[in-house]
Amino acid sequence: MKKLLAVLIALTLGLGTTALAADYTVGICQQMPHAALDSATQGFIDALNEALGEGAVEFLVQNAQGDSTACTTIVNDFVTKKVDLILGNATTALQAAANGTFTIPVLGTSVTEYGTALGIENFSGLVGGNVSGTSDLAPLDEQANMILELWPQAKTCAMLYCSGEPNSAYQVKKVAEYLTAKGVTCVEYPFSDSNDIASVAKAAAAAADVIYIPTDNTAAACAEAINGAVLPTGTPIMGGDEGICGGCGIATLCINYYDLGVTTGKMAARILTGEIKIEETEIAYAEKFSKVYNPDNCRELGVDIAALEAAGYTAIVKEKP
């Protein structure tokens, strides 16, 4: 009788454990730590928890610290663990996930242009297969036009970006085409990594009237270093996203990365529950964009803040250390 009771207790505890276990396991590979990517990851997690319930999803969150090899290692571990879905946060993480599995659903976020990231010519918005996601692409023509509006006397624009990020090169190309057509001379200043970013930024500042930095993960992670190199020269920077603008820029037209993560999380929930098929899911784009400015750098360079606010710009609120 005692043995039977022990067996029943063990079975009951086992059933209780099973009931409390997560329904899904989701692997998150974030390319590197910085504010925009952190916000996208948090938005993704919050949206999945809200859609499926707290505890329904076990999140395996890994940060590659900007190392592409680490992205591959992280993804391979997720594949070995047979997770139900993988989030690739930023381009290198997405590329690793897309190359690492052809069966597990893969969603990207904080990726600017999927055709460029995945080598798809004439990209129409649908990746197909096991890959989809969300894009952080802001209207590049409007960003370029903001440069002309804020600095109408500018004759030269330096395009500062990381040579290892194909989506950065894509943005630079598009913005340069627009500015060149308006009579502005554009010169590219690519840097390879954080080791040469300050010296390249100084060279760009010395040669141009204004600097454009696209949505670039390496630049965002090193925004303070860029600021230290460029601000003393008085050369203004137009950032491709809020993180870059807040770290070293004057203004930008940008999206909210937390909201982008939420959109991606809602997409993940529908894929996990079978409501939609990932192979039929097109890339989703941000619907809202905000014009923001960096009050500290504006004051430092004598930019008319009242005029910016009258034109619809709002100040970036920086978190206290």
Description of the structure:
This protein folds into two domains: 2-136 and 257-285, Response regulator (Rossmann fold); 140-254 and 289-315, Response regulator (Rossmann fold, 3-Layer(aba) Sandwich). Helix content is 47%, strand content 20%. It is built from 14 helices and 13 strands. The protein has helices at residues 2-20, 35-52, 68-80, 91-100, 114-118, 140-150, 166-181, 197-207, 217-221, 223-230, 242-248, 257-272, 295-301, 305-310, and strands at residues 24-30, 57-63, 85-89, 106-111, 131-135, 156-162, 185-191, 210-213, 237-239, 251-254, 284-285, 290-293, 314-315. The strands form three sheets. A six-stranded parallel sheet has the order 2-1-3-4-5-11, sandwiched between helices. It has a four-stranded parallel sheet with strand order 7-6-8-9, with helices on both faces. The chain has a three-stranded mixed sheet with strand order 10-12-13, sandwiched between helices. Helix 4 (91-100) links the parallel strand 3 (85-89) and strand 4. It is elongated, with a radius of gyration of 22 Å. The termini are far apart.
